[in-house]
Amino acid sequence: MSSRPSAARREDLIELADWLGRERFAARAKDVDVQARFPTENYADLHEHGFLALCIPQRYGGLGADYETYCQVGRRFGRHCGATALTFNMHTCSMMWSGELADALPMTDGQRCLHEERRAEHYRRVVQEGAIFAQPFSEGAGTVTNSAPYGSTVRKVDGGWIMNGRKVFASLSGTANYYGMLCTEERGDGHRPSLRDTQYMAVPADAQGLEIAGDWDPLGMRGTVSRNLLMKDVFVPDAQEMMPAGLYIHAVMGWPHMFFTLAPTYMGIAEAAFDFTVRYLRGEVAGAPPVKRRMYPTKQIAVAQMSIQLEQMQALFLRTIAEARFEPAKSERLRAYAAQYTVMEGCNDICRLAIRTCGGHSMLKSFPLERMYRDSRCGALMLPWTAELCLERIGRGSLYEPGEED
Ligand SMILES: Cc1cc2nc3c(=O)[nH]c(=O)nc-3n(C[C@H](O)[C@H](O)[C@H](O)COP(=O)(O)OP(=O)(O)OC[C@H]3O[C@@H](n4cnc5c(N)ncnc54)[C@H](O)[C@@H]3O)c2cc1C
User: Does the CB atom of residue 83 touch ligand 1 within 6 A?
Assistant: First the structure.
């Protein structure tokens, strides 16, 4: 089982993350954004400081961080480079889901033993070789909402699986060494596929039949390089399983906070936009017009509104990451949706207010605020917990008990 790091250890990791973000990532963020290129240098730093193995248990050579520590670390990275934080989420969740999360799921002794063997090899690649994992689940067809089986398929053959299909928005495309994909097992015999047939497999980047396709020139989160993946008869060895067959659905049902892991990035962006606003109005931002604006009541009120909204977001964020566990209470599950909605939409609100309050100069590309503004728009679009789907789940979950229908 993953052990919870001590409070002091957690603080050390968070402080180190903040230092890395401030001293290394912040200076590169503009170039990563302008070029829409992957932040490769940041990943060299992450590897050097052990962060690629943040959520790998210590007995495998990782830092042994738990869910909550990851959320705090991701939030710190988000303050300095949204694309680094968001892609770090994809990689780190690949480790956490096969680690802390899988440990809580029901498995037979045989499954657990095999899972242990397989994840040891995934972890070895990360710890020793600096391997990077992506999480391309989306297919652009509603499947990633966990209401229908994935369109991409795997078929059992000797020693492995044959994969076919297509993924969209594959962050880290062209950089990841392994693509952790969700696919539906084809069983034949008239079997009607369901989410229970979902397989979670890490496809090596150099696998034959795997192709990266499509352009990447988006509004925000440009450094994530989230292009499409095409799989044509890709052979994936058995050992590439990230979770035992059929277990993913138990994770979805029992560990809902697994999808809240996208929120720390946006919590960090919101905090950075607020800090920028305060420094700008105090006349402390280098390159900004040499006039203070803090004496105007309009600015003070706008900053107060932003501060109140940020406090609300932080309070809900902290409560939610502390409540993450297997089989949370219904109220905790609904609160996680509310927190996701609040952070994702709130981040965009704070960035919008920041530009309005600081004024026209603040949205020049020489300042990071306009990048934060564009990055902030992406949070509410992330499936399966888009802002609108969170609203739907909160509404339905509040009005209906399990099994009730009209
Ligand atoms: C910067 C960025 C990076 C990303 N990185 C990744 C990644 O690494 N891995 C990954 O898997 N995905 C990634 N995504 C994809 C993301 O999670 C969504 O899948 C994607 O934004 C959906 O695109 P869409 O809105 O065109 O899709 P659509 O599926 O067309 O959805 C459109 C909207 O309709 C609603 N909707 C969709 N399905 C349903 C349904 N069944 N019921 C009710 N409403 C529904 C949703 O609210 C959604 O916003 C990334 C997206 C962005 C913007």
Answer: no
Q: Confirm or reject: Cβ of 144 under 6 Å from ligand 1.
A: yes
Q: Are residues 274 and 395 in the same domain?
A: yes
Q: Which helix (H) or strand (E) covers residue 297, if one does?
A: helix 297-323
User: Do 168 and 223 belong to one domain?
Assistant: yes
Residue 185: inside a domain: yes
Q: Whose CA is nearest to atom 15 of ligand 1?
A: 169
Could you give the dihedral angle defined by the CA atoms of residues 196, 383, 88 and 61, in that order, rounded to the nearest 10 degrees? -20
Residues 281 and 189 in one domain: no
Domain around 188:
143-247
The pLDDT value given to residue 112: 96
Q: Is the CB of 32 under 6 A from ligand 1?
A: no
Q: How far apart are CA 180 and CA 178, in angstroms?
A: 6
Q: How far is the CA of 146 from the centre of ligand 1 (A)?
A: 12
Contact between residue 86 and residue 224 where contact means Cβ atoms under 8 Å apart: yes
Task: Indicate which CATH number applies to the domain containing 276.
Answer: 1.20.140.10
pTM of the model: 0.96
Q: CB of 243 closer than 6 A to ligand 1?
A: no
Query: Is 167 in contact with 139 (CB distance < 8 Å)?
Result: yes
Assigned token pair, 85: 């934080």
Q: Which atom of ligand 1 is nearest to the CA of 378?
A: 53
Asked whether residue 203 falls in the same domain as residue 267, the answer is no
In the chain, how many domains are there?
Answer: 3
pLDDT tens track for 355-398:
999 999 999 999 999 999 999 999 999 999 999 999 999 999 99
Characterize the bridge pairing of strands 153-157 and 227-237. Answer: unpaired
Residue with CA nearest ligand 1 atom 30: 140
